[in-house]
């Protein structure tokens, strides 16, 4: 039996409906925008990948002029619902922990471009069990550049899938993929969170949406469902330091403190022997998860 192509399994919208909807999208009211986006996502193949263990991601918090290191792991996690502000992906339905592919990306995402030193807490999360990730816009990015932002050497398989499709159908597929990616990256968080909601509702097994950083070129953000974090991630390290932005998204760090352990209740134990050493690494072994005692 001949296997169906991607576009045969997930037929894109007819070209006139697709192009008219995209061109008129800026003039639509919010209800019409959501209706059009929901229709696109319903018909679009959501490419997800199993992300293996061992990868590390960073989360930073700006602590102002407070020289005292944070004392509990909760202060680097999602804030309580009553005080949290909504970001690009989270909503009333889905609470999200935002992490980034590098320390620099995490710091840039805070958008505190201050040339004077301030205090920051930075935690490193490491994957210990594979997790399903949706890299937004990966189809169109792979077709344009020949290599996905996330898939790396597996990109050739995607190109083969694309090339097997009817040319007219694949054009509509790629237009849809690019538009959904652009919508998730827009500045209107009503739209971005709605796109994310539709994705999570369509594929409930997706725990992470990965998307490129708008603040630091080449950086990747991992938006993780908060209720899935400890099933796949553990904390690998925590540091507290004075940091200032230099230029072009790069930073200077000083007066660095490192956590050497975390109690079962989440209290942070700071290492007094390597204070001020920004290059010292203090990985936690095993990774810390709630209930994990030192």
Biggest beta sheet summary: 5 strands, mixed
* Overall pLDDT metric: 91
Shape: elongated
Count of spatially separate domains: 2
* N-end to C-end Cα span: 56 Å
Query: Which percent range describes the beta-strand content?
Result: 15-25%
Structural class of the secondary elements? alpha+beta
Low-confidence stretches: none
Order of helices and strands: HHHEEEHEEHHHHEEHEEE
Give the strand order, joined by hyphens, for the main sheet.
Answer: 1-5-6-7-3
Rg value: 21 Å
The tally of strands reads 10
Number of helices: 9
Q: Roughly how much helix do the residues carry, as a percent range? A: 25-40%
Protein name: RES domain-containing protein
Organism: Salmonella senftenberg
InterPro entries: RES_dom
Domain RES: 80-224
Protein described:
By secondary structure, this protein is α+β, with helices and mostly antiparallel strands. Helix content is 30%, strand content 25%. The N and C termini lie far apart (56 Å). The model has no long low-confidence stretch (mean pLDDT 91). Residues 80-224 form the RES domain. It comes from Salmonella senftenberg. InterPro entries: RES_dom (IPR014914).
Quick structural overview:
The chain is of the alpha+beta class. 30% of the residues lie in helices and 25% in strands.
């Amino acid at each position: 039996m001949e296997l169906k192509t991607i576009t045969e399994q997930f037929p894109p919208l007819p070209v006139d409906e697709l192009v008219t909807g995209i061109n008129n999208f800026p003039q639509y009211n919010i209800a019409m925008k959501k209706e059009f986006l929901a229709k696109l996502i319903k018909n679009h193949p959501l490419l997800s990948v199993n992300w293996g263990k061992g990868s590390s991601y960073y989360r930073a918090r700006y602590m102002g002029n407070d020289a005292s290191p944070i004392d509990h792991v909760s202060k680097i996690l999602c804030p309580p619902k009553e005080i949290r502000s909504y970001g690009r992906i989270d909503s009333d339905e889905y609470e999200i922990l935002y992490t980034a592919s590098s320390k620099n990306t995490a710091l840039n995402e805070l958008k505190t471009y201050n040339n004077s030193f301030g205090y920051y807490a930075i935690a490193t999360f490491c994957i210990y069990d594979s997790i399903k990730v949706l890299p937004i816009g990966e189809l169109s990015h792979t077709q344009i550049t020949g290599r996905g932002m996330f898939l790396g050497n597996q990109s050739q398989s995607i190109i083969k899938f694309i090339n097997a499709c009817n040319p007219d159908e694949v054009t509509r597929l790629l237009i849809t993929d690019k538009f959904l990616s652009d919508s998730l990256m827009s500045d209107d968080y009503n739209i971005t969170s709605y796109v994310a909601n539709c994705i999570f509702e369509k594929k409930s097994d997706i725990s992470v949406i990965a998307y490129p950083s708008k603040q630091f070129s080449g950086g990747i953000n991992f938006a993780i469902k908060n209720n899935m974090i400890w099933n796949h991630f553990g904390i690998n390290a925590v540091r507290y330091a004075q940091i200032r932005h230099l230029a072009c998204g790069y930073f200077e760090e000083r007066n660095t403190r490192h956590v050497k352990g975390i109690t079962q209740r989440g209290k942070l134990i700071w290492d007094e022997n390597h204070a001020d050493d920004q290059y010292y690494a203090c990985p936690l072994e095993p990774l810390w998860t709630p209930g994990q005692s030192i």
